[in-house]
Amino acid sequence: MSLPHCPKCNSEYTYQDSDLLICPECSYEWKDGEQVTADDSVTIKDAVGNILADGDSVTVIKDLKIKGSSAVVKVGTKVKSIRLLVDSNDGHDIDCKIDGIGPMKLKSEFVKKA
After folding, report:
1. Which residues contact 86 (CB under 8 A, 6 or more apart)?
2. What does residue 79 show for φ and ψ, rounded to 5 degrees?
3. Within a domain: residue 45?
4. Which of 2, 23, 88, 92 has a beta carbon 3.0–4.6 Å from 6's, enabling a disulfide?
5. Is position 44 within any domain?
């Protein structure tokens, strides 16, 4: 039995769970035979499950070491006016500018909506 490729990312590694087909690469779920429209967008959620959008403010929930530097983004740091990165390959899905540090990318699993 051959399962269809993912309609979002065209991955061949889909699997079936009950009546849903699931893509392990982009986490998209759909029912077999379901029509998928092009305007379905990827939703990015914070650490507690709130949906994030461009322009939101978030708070860092864990100390984050900055690669290549001795600086640290401390817990509770508020980041304003985030921009979401949908096509990021490195797992970082938030683009932002942090006061005192500068521009950087964050992973949504380490922030919560403010």
Report:
1. 41, 42, 44, 93
2. -115, 125
3. no
4. 23
5. no
Q: Which residue from 101, 94, 16, 21 is spatially nearest to 53, judged by alpha carbons?
A: 94
The two tokens of residue 42 are 């990827």
Other Cβ atoms less than 10 A from the Cβ of 88: the count is: 14
Give the DSSP letter of residue 51.
B
Does the residue 49 lie in any domain? Answer: no
End-to-end CA distance of the chain: 46
* Residue with the two structure tokens 């979002």: 8
Q: Is 21 exposed, middle or buried (0-12, 13-18, 19+ CB in 10 A)?
A: buried
Q: pLDDT digits over 52-108, tens only?
A: 999 999 999 999 999 999 999 999 999 999 999 877 778 899 999 999 999 999 999
